[in-house]
Amino acid sequence: MIWTSRTFVILASLACASVAVPTTSSCTFPRCDVSSAVIETDGSTLPAPKYTPSFVGLGVGTQNYTCASTGTYTNVGALAELFDISCLYGEPGFDELTSTVSLFWNAAPPVITPAEIIAFGEKFDLSFVLGEHYFVVNPVTGSGLNPKWDFTSHAFAGNPNAYVVGSKVDDVPAPTGSSDIDWLYLTNLTGSLANEIYRIETKGGQPPASCTPGSNNITVKYTSLYWFTGGAF
Ligand SMILES: *[C@@H]1O[C@H](CO)[C@@H](O)[C@H](O)[C@H]1NC(C)=O
Ligand SMILES: *[C@@H]1O[C@H](CO)[C@@H](O)[C@H](O)[C@H]1NC(C)=O
Ligand SMILES: *[C@@H]1O[C@H](CO)[C@@H](O)[C@H](O)[C@H]1NC(C)=O
């Protein structure tokens, strides 16, 4: 728990530092307006957004892989907590957030899992948590998995519509290097939380280059920025 707490204190202080006048002594975390923010996709060929930015989250979690018969890993999902970093936009260090936080995330012992981070967020009702990212069966075709971003537990608790299931439109290698998972552009397959989703500034998340068919599934830690545009929230 020490590591979990410390990671959260760091994240909390990062968020608190940008709040000039905390509204309460317990430091609640307002969401800042990012509608004029620029989603920096420099170095990639991802398309420009068609809608204005609505949310920006720092994703901390794992990518899941299974070993295919070809001896290489195939991605089979992910689980991540999304922290609201809207008030850090434009502050020094914003561009390095995924790198900074990945140092702590990678140093955390194996006992600290995304599920534990999520449980911690629920227990302490952390107001700087936006929600969770995980995979669900494609709600349109009923087969295959699609990524979902679900803000019904935190940012819009009690509103069952505060989610988006994404459909991948564009997938490019991370310009930051081959150990970072791809940058993505998705649009909403279902849900009105957002019209577009970007996964950029990724750190980590890539599996080993090869595997022995039949070996266990693995999870690989990653951090990422998730930008959401449009939407009805
Ligand atoms: C991915 O792994 C996590 C454990 O980190 C697990 O909770 C989750 O269900 C897995 N998701 C999929 C789609 O395999
Ligand atoms: C690995 O993950 C795949 C896809 O989620 C699943 O079908 C399979 O049962 C898992 N394999 C093991 C060994 O857990
Ligand atoms: C996508 O999100 C928008 C909200 O901005 C909504 O109007 C639209 O119905 C959503 N599309 C689907 C297929 O759910």
UniProtKB/TrEMBL annotation:
Residues 1-20 form the signal peptide. Keywords: Signal. The keyword Signal applies. It comes from the Eukaryota. This is Malate dehydrogenase. The lineage of its organism: Eukaryota, Fungi, Dikarya, Basidiomycota, Agaricomycotina.
